[in-house]
Design brief:
single chain, 93 residues, alpha+beta, 3-stranded antiparallel sheet, two-stranded antiparallel sheet, 40% helix
């Protein structure tokens, strides 16, 4: 069963003994919102926008100031999901 843990926006569950984050609790994909572009849940801010900010050297606080509908906990949760994805990908390679 899913359990709230670490971030209020993230549900963690176990897959083959590995604790995973439920992407659905952090990311919204809805064809009616930005044509299905993955966004932070409860907003119209694309996840890619955060990645673009970080890639260009901006700080998380800069992103949050520019997109006040996104909460810090949501950003941290998305980064957790991204980190888990990279780790699992590396382990399966």
């Amino acid at each position: 069963p899913a359990v709230l843990f670490k971030h209020e926006f993230v549900r963690y569950h176990s897959v083959r003994g590995v604790v995973m984050t439920s992407v659905n609790s952090v990311v919204l994909v809805d064809p009616e919102i930005l044509s299905g572009t993955p966004c932070f849940s409860g907003t119209r801010v694309p996840i890619q926008t955060l990645m673009d900010y970080l890639r260009s050297g901006d700080r998380i606080v800069d992103f949050l100031n520019d997109f006040p509908t996104v909460q810090r906990e949501q950003v941290e949760a998305v980064l957790d999901v991204a980190g888990e994805a990279v780790t699992l990908y590396a382990r399966s390679a």
